[in-house]
Structures are given as structure tokens and as C-alpha cells.
Amino acid sequence: MRRVAFLLRPGWIALALVVIAFTYLCFTVLAPWQLGKNSRTTRENHQIEQSLRTAPVPLKTLLPQQISSAPDAQWCRVTATGHYLADLRVLARLRVVEGDPAFEVLEPFAVDDGPTVLVDRGYVRPEQGSHVPPIPPAPQQTVTITARLRDSEPAAQGKAPFLKDGFQQVYSINTEQVATLTRVPLAGSYLQLVEDQPGGLGVIGIPHLDAGPFLSYGIQWISFGILAPIGLGYFAYSELKARRKEKQQAPGPAGPTTVEDKIADRYGRRR
């Protein structure tokens, strides 16, 4: 009992609590966070590869109704015939395209006998800081477009839409938020135009197919979660071993060194 009593000291208890908390975070927060990123990246890369091998399909096969969305078909190329609602333009600000800031131009597109979808026409570069440059209008007549299907982005927390330079501006391409601003119902997914399309602006390319370091980071956090309690146990074992060795090497009580001392000690014990 005495050998492990030092483990109950405040310093050891605090260290053990830190190790337990760190291990808990590794397995419940840090590792799942990185592994979740890896799963999303792998899924997106698979969808991009699939879209490059597959011919465009009619939009209404994936978004048959106004309330439809198609998260499993992101990046799939689709075709749609209809017309732009050009007077309901919204700009996504603070976007980065090819390493430089940009506005992405968003306009609703009414599909013939189908849903109204949000179309990302492409990008324009800001002028004089963050001012909106002149934007060529979209065609007013009926057109057929080819685009990539995209998932609606989460609304930017704490950043409300606002009006500047005569345009409603948002911080993310969230179809529900844009529908509220334009007062036009929009499908849950939106379209991103490919090159050479009616109404197209600067073309936004597809992401590079790179799985990234997320899987290795997740494995590292799992390893840290395993090694932390092992390290604490080894440290405790080493401390116990060192204390046992110190106790064995400690000098005992001094005994008699001469014959007279030994005789006195002997007779003294008998008495």
C-alpha cells in the first residue's frame, strides 16, 4: 500500500486527469474530426471522378421537384432548358478562385416544366478593394445550359446578408438563404456553370483530386490516445522501481564494530 501511496498525491492525480482528458479528446473529438474530413474528401473525389466519366443528364432526372436536392450526385453534369431571372441577382463575396479574391454571381434559373434552381454563373474580380465591377447580364431568352450539380453550403454563422453597390451580398452559397432574399423558391442543390455556357462568366474549376493528410492525422490522434495512458503507466512503474531501489540502498542501523562492543551488545540483549 505504501508503494503506491505517492500515486495519490495531488500532482499525480492532476497528471492522471490530464492524461484521461487528453485520451478522451483523442478518441471522441480529434480523431473523428480528421477521419470525417477524410471521408468527405474521399466521397467528393469519387463524385468528381464519376462526373468526368459520365455524360450530362437532364436536370429533372435528379431534381424532379422544387423541394428536391441531390447530395449523392454532387459534381454530376446536368443540362437544363429555361430562362434566367436576371433581376434577382445575388453575389457571394469573399470567395477565392485560383488564389485571388472574387465575387461569384448567383441568379435563379426557371427550368421549363421543372424546378427553379440557383445558378452560379461564375466569378468576377472586385475593383478598388471590394467594390463590384460591371457584370454582363444573362440572356433574357430561353437557353439550354450545362452545369455541375453542387450541394448547398451551410449559411455563414454570424454574417448576415447585406446590400452594397446595388447588389444583395452573401458569405456562402446557401440556397435557402438566397431563396429568402430573392423571394423565389429554389431547389436544395444549385448549379455551377461549366465553360462556354449562356450567361457564363469566369469559369470555376473543379477541385484537385487530392485525398489530403486527413487520414494520417486521424491515425496519429488515435496513436496519441493509445500512447498517453501507456506513457503514464510506464512513468508510474519507473517511479515505483526507483523508490524501491532507493529504499534497498538506504543504510541500516549501525552495529557493533569491535569485540568489546559485540560482547556488550550480546550481554545487553540477554539482560
UniProtKB/TrEMBL annotation:
<feature type="transmembrane region" description="Helical">
    <location>
        <begin position="12"/>
        <end position="33"/>
    </location>
</feature>
<keyword id="KW-1003">Cell membrane</keyword>
<dbReference type="GO" id="GO:0005886">
    <property type="term" value="C:plasma membrane"/>
</dbReference>
<dbReference type="InterPro" id="IPR045214">
    <property type="entry name" value="Surf1/Surf4"/>
</dbReference>
<comment type="similarity">
    <text>Belongs to the SURF1 family.</text>
</comment>
<feature type="compositionally biased region" description="Basic and acidic residues">
    <location>
        <begin position="259"/>
        <end position="271"/>
    </location>
</feature>
<keyword id="KW-0472">Membrane</keyword>
<feature type="region of interest" description="Disordered">
    <location>
        <begin position="245"/>
        <end position="271"/>
    </location>
</feature>
<feature type="transmembrane region" description="Helical">
    <location>
        <begin position="214"/>
        <end position="237"/>
    </location>
</feature>
<protein>
    <recommendedName>
        <fullName>SURF1-like protein</fullName>
    </recommendedName>
</protein>
<keyword id="KW-1133">Transmembrane helix</keyword>
<dbReference type="InterPro" id="IPR002994">
    <property type="entry name" value="Surf1/Shy1"/>
</dbReference>
<dbReference type="Pfam" id="PF02104">
    <property type="entry name" value="SURF1"/>
</dbReference>
<keyword id="KW-0812">Transmembrane</keyword>
